[in-house]
């Protein structure tokens, strides 16, 4: 067995590999860029080596620097994680030539299956059912349009070396095909250094179900059941679960056996994933094979009890698999939510900056240990750390394991309630809305689920809540608790002491100067017990919570049922307001005396400044292209600028016909949120 390994990656996956190595008694070496000098994976590893500047093409993608770090530190093996160089055939071969064990498949397996064009050819030769398409590299957008017309729209344009949603577009007409081809090539070139693009028929209403395989150097290959990955946005997975709520045992077995046959055909060693698109009649087609560890591997670990990183290390060290196909169990139900630094209410634009608060829910399962029926958090960040603009947007992966699917969904919803993130926006409200959607609960979904239900974007009103008045009651409970503390302050002027009222009015801010009021009555208050009866209109809530006033995460019971919520006093515009979050819903409200509520209703509303004649940067990022010049007239829908953030190209277009009056930012400039780029006449 190895005594020291290097992890050629960053973030949560680097931390994940370190956890297993530590369990196995193996020392670890981290590599990092200048942007990651204070990163969590650097702190956790036994040693760390600086690779270079922040851009990945100058650090994490430079094979020579990584191999030099192995030799410098004496690392005998290298784990590539996922992304970066994990599926790079040349890098895997180079490691082998340099005497460094690559903890992953052999280079010839990556060549055969990691390249999506080559893998489809091999699958066809093996008589595996594949989707109709064009498996040769497409060179021009004109050629792409011609091929798409021959295949028939809709088509999927995919980068050969793509992954993680990068370098992938769906086109429904010639215009989308032309533009999508160009964007795919650019993203593929920037992210993977390989701009080859191919095309295939897009199967409408498909389900994305993948099979986890594991092979050793003795020729043994097994499958570790399936993962349902159909909840996707822009072809990036949002929620994954194992097993799938859709397929039958017969389909599961057939998919698993086909995945094993493919893996054996390329003499596959290590962990890998065979992805399928599954139709409504459970007919399935091979899509591609990911020759690496997947982001969503924890759900497989939960239901099988296996540590996949440990298995990869043991296989790389030459050990045979210690179990047969018949010995692999499937226990309970696991769900994973990807917690990303993005603003779901602003079209999921990237959000970078400092994590002012980072308090994940309490973990009852940990990485690298077989846990059952609990909560697990895989992360590479910490409170006070930075979410940089140079890499992907993932903050953490939240994983739960339940006895069945309903229990897993309930656990995940409660865990999301207690996940505190401040300083950057996160997609937690969106995750909460998805989990509460009735079609998700019944398993009635496909890869078009998000596009179908949130076609016009995601808005605050899209977050359902069983009882929004509970948020009002909780704010009243907290205000009454604060009032009790204020009344106990010593040195108050006689005759002017703080009086504790029973009647309040909650003024809920609806935005745009609008509000609504709710009468509150708070009785039977027992401060020592953290208990009170709160009446909102004609609804009664008996709330019990011993959380402190300065706790952001509030836990307790309401009418005998356990709850977890988040509460904070003071907002940017109103230091007296409370912000209450529960079930994905966020509510801003002020709890006042009846007379104060009357007076507040008379206060004028100050409208925000008019920015209709400005093009503002919707996110922090790099302005890579400016398509408009002073005096130019731009029609609605035309491109104005391109901003690159978190390895994704974001195209800003005109929402109406405009004439450019002034250019306020230059290409190559790093933009902040809402920074003006153009002014229109």
Order of neighbouring strands in the sheet with most strands:
14-13-10-11-12-15-22-20
Give the amount of beta strand, in percent: 25-35%
CATH architectural designation of the largest domain: 2-Layer Sandwich
* Proportion of helical residues: 25-40%
Low-confidence stretches: none
Number of discrete domains: 5
* Computed Rg: 27 Å
Quick one: how many beta strands? 39
Number of helices: 17
CATH class of the largest domain: Alpha Beta
CATH topology of the largest domain: D-amino Acid Aminotransferase, Chain A, domain 1
How many strands, which pairing sense, and closed or not: the largest β-sheet? Answer: 8 strands, antiparallel
Structure description:
Helix content is 26%, strand content 33%. It is α+β, with helices and mostly antiparallel strands and 681 residues long. It has five domains: 100 residues, 3-Layer(aba) Sandwich (Rossmann fold), CATH 3.40.50; 70 residues, ATP-grasp fold, A domain (Dna Ligase, domain 1, 2-Layer Sandwich); 244 residues, ATP-grasp fold, B domain (D-amino Acid Aminotransferase, Chain A, domain 1); 126 residues, 2-Layer Sandwich (Glycoprotein, Type 4 Pilin), CATH 3.30.700; 67 residues, RNA polymerase II/Efflux pump adaptor protein, barrel-sandwich hybrid domain (OB fold (Dihydrolipoamide Acetyltransferase, E2P), Beta Barrel), CATH 2.40.50.100. The strands form nine sheets. It has an eight-stranded antiparallel sheet. The termini are far apart.
